[in-house]
């Protein structure tokens, strides 16, 4: 163990100067990179069509645009509860458990849930 006098005589390490930062902790740079005028001739903006709903033959929504959060459940809540009453050995039981979990997670994340094709 070192004595107190030895610790006081230690040389202090040199610290490089700090780079200027903003309040958010981002490093400020002196210059902003510019795009080359040669490449700007070839780069054109792309217009993408708005996403559309995809429906099946019966008019039920299969896919919805990403902006609208919808979960389609093929069963009603009563049917899900009935399916869960099956024995644990039966795969129908686990199907009901799966759909109940999907519904709970959708509601937790604020998504709209559609049961059996009807909005609730």
Descriptive overview:
The chain is an alpha+beta fold. The chain has a domain of 66 residues. Helix content is 29%, strand content 12%. The protein contains four helices and five strands, in the order ααβββααββ. Helix 3 crosses helix 4. The longest helix has 18 residues. The N and C termini lie far apart (73 Å). 2% of the residues are buried.
* SS-derived structural category: alpha+beta
Beta content comes to 5-15%
Helix content: 25-40%
Q: How many extended strands?
A: 5
Q: State the separation between the terminal residues, measured CA to CA.
A: 73 Å
Oligomer: single chain
Distinct helical segment count: 4
- Sheet with the most strands? 3 strands, mixed
H-E order: HHEEEHHEE
How confident is the prediction overall: mean pLDDT? 77
Radius of gyration: 31 Å
The gross shape turns out to be flat
- What is the strand arrangement across the widest sheet? 3-4-5
Low-confidence region ranges: none
SSE topology:
Layout: H1 4-8, H2 37-40, E1 54-55, E2 61-63, E3 70-73, H3 77-84, H4 91-108, E4 112-115, E5 118-119
Parallel strand pairs: 3-4
Antiparallel strand pairs: 1-2, 4-5
Features:
alpha+beta, two-stranded antiparallel sheet, 4 helices
Structure at a glance:
This protein is an alpha+beta fold and 120 residues long. It has helices spanning 4-8, 37-40, 77-84, 91-108, and strands at residues 54-55, 61-63, 70-73, 112-115, 118-119. The strands form two sheets. It has a three-stranded mixed β-sheet with strand order 3-4-5. A two-stranded antiparallel sheet has the order 1-2.
